[in-house]
Amino acid sequence: MKIERVRCESLTFDPQNVREHDERNVEAIKASLSRFGQQKPIVVDAEGVVIAGNGTLGAARMLGWQEIDIVRTHLSGAEAVAYAVADNRTAELANWSVDDLALTLDTLEPELRKAAGYNQDEFDSLIESLADKTVGEAQDPLPPTWRLTAVCKSEAQRDEIAKLLEARGIEIE
């Protein structure tokens, strides 16, 4: 397939699109487009009806974009409808590695987290749920031959570390 650049106004939203884009979703798409540009084309049929990428086209128009990259598919009718559903559904069927996601997002500046679709409240909630999960999990204690030394800046910090270690069955000297 060949990528084409066309005027946004020449495209039509899919009247059979069953995917809804609420304000939060559109804001995330806009943030991504603003920061990274369009990194993949939207899919349209021979008449310029969007099969996959209705949210992207809507966000691009809201940002004032005049042109957008597309690929034209040979699919039509029921096949085009099924592809449109599959394009959205296959992403939903994937799972996040929440621990890895939290660690990855933690390495990003807030502006990049926003462009990745996470506002500060969502990021804080993710980190909090990860901390709750970690504290609540029963984990095997360190082998008895291991020795850990922690340098604490305050008695309160020492007490907090002690609580975390004790919750994991690790004895403190």
Structure description:
With 173 residues, this protein is of the alpha+beta class. It folds into three domains: 3-92, Alpha-Beta Complex (Conserved hypothetical protein from pyrococcus furiosus pfu- 392566-001, ParB domain); 96-137; 139-173, no CATH class. 49% of the residues lie in helices and 10% in strands. The protein is built from seven helices and four strands. It has a four-stranded mixed β-sheet. A hairpin with a 5-residue loop joins strand 2 (42-44) and strand 3. Helix 1 (23-36) packs across helix 2 (54-62) and helix 4 crosses helix 6 (120-136). The protein is elongated, with a radius of gyration of 24 Å. The model has no long low-confidence stretch (mean pLDDT 86).
Concise account of the structure shown:
With 173 residues, the chain is α+β, with helices and mostly antiparallel strands.
**What CATH architecture of the largest domain would you give?**
Alpha-Beta Complex
Count all strands and give the number. 4
Ends: how far apart? 66 Å
Looking at the structure, the CATH topology of the largest domain is: Conserved hypothetical protein from pyrococcus furiosus pfu- 392566-001, ParB domain
The residue ranges in which pLDDT falls below 50 over 5 or more consecutive positions are none
- How confident is the prediction overall: mean pLDDT? 86
What's the layout of helices and strands?
Elements: E1 3-7, H1 23-36, E2 42-44, E3 50-52, H2 54-62, E4 67-72, H3 77-92, H4 98-106, H5 110-115, H6 120-136, H7 155-167
Parallel strand pairs: 2-4
Antiparallel strand pairs: 1-4, 2-3
Helix pairs in contact: 1-2, 4-6
